[in-house]
Amino acid sequence: xxxxxxxxxxxxxxxxxxxxxxxxxxxxxxxxxxxxxxxxxxxxxxxxxxxxxxxxxxxxxxxxxxxxxxxxxxxxxxxxxxxxxxxxxxxxxxxxxxxxxxxxxxxxxxxxxxxxxxxxxxxxxxxxxxxxxxxxxxxxxxxxxxxxxxxxxxxxxxxxxxxxxxxxxxxxxxxxxxxxxxxxxxxxxxxxxxxxxxxxxxxxxxxxxxxxxxxxx
Length: 217
What we know:
Elements: E1 2-3, E2 19-25, E3 28-36, E4 39-43, E5 51-56, E6 59-66, E7 69-76, E8 84-93, E9 110-111, E10 120-123, E11 129-130, E12 137-140, E13 145-149, E14 159-162, H1 171-175, E15 180-183, E16 188-191, E17 197-200, E18 213-215
Parallel strand pairs: 10-12, 11-13, 12-14, 13-17, 14-18
Antiparallel strand pairs: 1-2, 2-3, 2-8, 3-4, 5-6, 6-7, 7-8, 8-9, 15-16, 16-17
């Protein structure tokens, strides 16, 4: 028997990503905890068969069956301290998914940490999202306040990929939802209403354009 948490003490304050702990009994995940505001909070596991966890070596793999596809997320305990971080995610479209675009379409692996090569980076709220040295695609799926560091379209040819599953069909349609775009002296910030924004850390207004954006859904 092994446990992925120890009395829920906050020992992951140094992590820049969302942190998780798992209780693992006889090779099976029985409890899931997510760090929220410095404390560990229990996350429910759907018992209808749509959400499953498996343990493979030092990784925990979460598989969730959603409408029109399956999402697989890999978590790894990088420091062997019982704290797991998301390392990759993949979406697989189901054969009966409608062609109208109201589902995710990007099926390559998404990484939560960059490499020296060309990466597909998952952009998530609460994550320290940043690119590497290659030409990175920052894939946006959440409607939240998002921050992206090391975005460089001029030298690295980085791009923003909107795969929201909301049925977006064009850059023009996406642009119609922009309510404000400004530079605050350090970062370039785009607002889509009060509850959704994208902050490009350290980016100047002349370092980003709609040519650096693609829309998938």
